[in-house]
Amino acid sequence: xxxxxxxxxxxxxxxxxxxxxxxxxxxxxxxxxxxxxxxxxxxxxxxxxxxxxxxxxxxxxxxxxxxxxxxxxxxxxxxxxxxxxxxxxxxxxxxxxxxxxxxxxxxxxx
Length: 110
Prior knowledge:
Order of helices and strands: EEEHH
Oligomer: single chain
Largest sheet: 3 strands, antiparallel
Radius of gyration: 28 Å
Structural class: mainly alpha
Helix content: 55-70%
Strand order of the largest sheet: 1-2-3
Number of helices: 2
């Protein structure tokens, strides 16, 4: 997080709630972030122990993630198709260029 101090200088700070770590460069903050990584994996929550509200939030989150996944898959498929089209065009252009070069080669040696 970029912080603008009263004297006009800029500092970078950790964005985790309650953390006051700052550094004069963004690269100086990045190593600090490992402090906030959980040391043990979180235990899976039993849905039977969750409230209806939590279950609905979880379902909404899953639905949103599913929609984002579908959108990302469509974008990936379009990018692959675009890449393949460009590749075909490039190979075709290379063949045409070779044909032109081969046709002009006898004239260059004459």
